[in-house]
Structure formats: structure tokens, C-alpha cells
Amino acid sequence: MNRLLVMVPREGVDRLRAAGSHGSATFRVSDAENVGYLCAVSVKEGLTLPVKMRPRTHFLNVGEARRGGFWYRATTDLHAYGMAAGHRQSALTVAYFAEQVRSGFKNPGRSDYIALTYAPDVEADYPGAGIAEFAAWLVTADGVEPLDVACEPQVVGNAQLAPQWPVDPLAAATVTVVGTGSIGGATVHALADYGVGRLVLVDPDRLLWHNLVRHVSGPAQVGKMKVFALRDDLEKLRPDTHIEPHALDVIRDADKVRPLLARSDLVVCTADGVAPRRVVSHLARRAGLEAVLACVLEDGGIGEILRLRPWPDRGCLVCQRQALTDAGAIDPEPALDAGYGTGTRHRPMTAVGSDLHLVGQLAAKAAVATLLECAGHPDQRLPGDHGLLALRPKPGWPPPFDLARAGELRWLAARPPVSGCPTCEEP
């Protein structure tokens, strides 16, 4: 079995750095996982202060509390030798360990104990050597064995990606997602993973049992509105993303959706059906907002990403579809109204959940690339505005849907507005 992993939450790190030379330590341990964390520590005033492991529901918060541990300030040499001993899977002598701690060493006698050591000068003494300032040990009468240790860093979440990833412009962005079903749920998760700071979710439906085969939310959320289920999931997974749920129908509640778009930087539509997509296309154009529409076509055979930009030379959804039919291609819109379900009035579910999630993730990438391109990141320019992804391609489909192999991705240019379009022409 792997060595015991000792975890030190941020609060524990700060307290040990500010404390004196030694003290007692209590660890809460899960034997099943062979992991524990520092849950209480005495400081220089002699007070024993608790250390919290967040979130409150963390599995270690119900582990067994083991008192009798200790912490020490130590020399940098101890951590250097300890790292080498760990690689060799060997132990240090008790005498050497006692010499290397500043003061207060407790001889284990017959009672083994866990110890933490803090060496604040490791970087100055061993620059660039990768020696950690905190180390964990199992102190026994026969020797002192290095344990694994993990300290919670000062910065967690998407901020860790800076400066390799443009964290700040995405953290400041607001994206509205209309439709939070199988594709939309995956889109929402991916946008949060990219670091979008605020997500406004719009969907009137509940999560039901038949949705679970394809939705990102699990059985514990059945019965909730989908927007609230996603909010509750992401509060645990991505607490640095603010989720604003609205159980609204984009068609019936268009008057309530307009102000949401007015304070958004981009809108993504993954809603089922022709009407919601056309409404989002129209509302986004009127708001001067870029939109990304995502769906699957031909019973889940093709994934489609359509970016609509409110520019004079780019048409709305209806214009894009008209250009396809004028070129002799299929008009995919009517098929989107048939719907999937569980009863005899609906078509059977033919799209696989992972394929839908792939389309949702691609929609999130298109949305984020659009935001970053507008923020001055040329490396995020997309190859086109109309993306087609082969999921289960079949021969005989007319261009541009004539993809031949699974995973093939094709990007096409956007079409200009159709003359007389009530959406694209200025009111």
C-alpha cells in the first residue's frame, strides 16, 4: 500500500508558519484511503486551535481523530535527507531526527506518532532543488520514516492557470446559456472549467430519471429544475464561478431574457427545437451580442456549432439555413422539433450521452475562443463560424454534412444576411 498521505489545509499552513518552535498536532485519518489531515495544532501561546478541511462535506471530516502527534521547526538538511530517504524507501535514525528539529523533540518510546516538520529556509539553502518546506513523518522507536505530504496552496482554482491562460478576461466575462439539457449541461461545466466568471442559466425543465442517461447531473438531483441542479453541482466543483439560474422559457419569457442578455458578453443556445434557437438568434442580434448555437443533427450523427456574429456581413440563423437550402444541402431545422423522449409520441433516444457532451464542450470552446479573440488573443481565432463534427456519419448525406469518419471536424464560413430578413435588417 502507498505511504500515508498527510494533508495540511491552508489554515494549518498559516498557523504553523506563525507558531513557535514545536507543539502538539492532531490528525484526522481515514484508514480505508490511507490519508489524513492536520485538524488541530497547538501554537506558541499554548492554545490548541482547530484546523478546518473544506468543504464541510469532505470525506476526511468524518475520519478518526488521532491525538498524540507533534510538529517541529526543523533544519533544511532534515528535509533534504528526508526527500532522499523517501526515494530510497529507507528511514532516518531517531537520534539524527532529534538533532535536526529545533527543540521539544518527543521520544516515541512504545507509542508511534505522526509528526510534521516545517523548514522555512529550504529555498534559500537549496535553491531550485524542489525541497518542500513541510514534511511528514512516522516517528517510531526503530526509526523515522518519511510520509507523503500535501499542503493546500495559496491559490487554487482557475487562478492557478495564470499566466499561461488568460484568466482575468474570462473571470470578468458573463455568458448566458439557454438550454441546460444534455448538451447544455456539458457546455456549462466546460465554460466553468475554462474560467468564465459568471454563467446565467435559462431553462424551464426539470431533471427527470430518463435524462440521467445523458445528463451531466446525477440521481441525487432528480426532480430539481435543471438550472438549479447545475448550480448546486458547480458550487461544489467550481466555487470560483458564479451561477445565476433562471427557470424561464426563452419563448414565453423573452421579455425576461432580454435584460439577461443585456448584461452578458455572449449567449450560447443548446435548447431543443427550432423556435427557441430562432428566438435566441433574434434576441442576440438585437442585443448586438455574439451567439453560439449547438445541436446534433440526423439522429445524433452530426454535431453542429453555429456562431452568429451581429456584423453587417454575417446573417442570423434563418439566413444561414436559407443559404444551405439554396445550395442544395439538407435543411436540418425541421428535424430539431421532433424531440427525444420516453413515450410513444417521441422519437427514441439515438444520441449517446458522451457524443452530446463532446458537442457541448466544443460549443464552450467556440464561446471562449470568441470572447478571447474579442479581448485581443489572436491565437483563439476559430477557423470559421459553422462547425460540423462527425459523430456517427453515414454515406449519402449532401455537402457540407458529407463527413466520412467519426471525429472529423469541418469549419465553414458564415453566410451574409438574406435581403429583407427582419432580424438582420435594422429595425
UniProtKB/TrEMBL annotation:
The record's section on Pfam families has: ThiF
Q: Can you tell which superkingdom this protein's organism belongs to? A: Bacteria
Q: Which organism is it from?
A: Micromonospora viridifaciens
> InterPro entries in the record, alphabetically?
ThiF/MoeB/HesA, ThiF_NAD_FAD-bd, Ubiquitin-activating_enz
**Which SUPFAM superfamilies does this UniProt record tie to the protein?**
Activating enzymes of the ubiquitin-like proteins
Determine if Transferase is one of this entry's keywords: yes
Biological-process GO terms, alphabetical: cyclic threonylcarbamoyladenosine biosynthetic process
The UniProt keywords, alphabetically, are:
Nucleotidyltransferase, Transferase
Stated name of the protein: Molybdopterin or thiamine biosynthesis adenylyltransferase
- Report domain THIF-type NAD/FAD binding fold positions: 170-374
- List the molecular function annotations (GO) for this entry: nucleotidyltransferase activity; tRNA threonylcarbamoyladenosine dehydratase; ubiquitin-like modifier activating enzyme activity
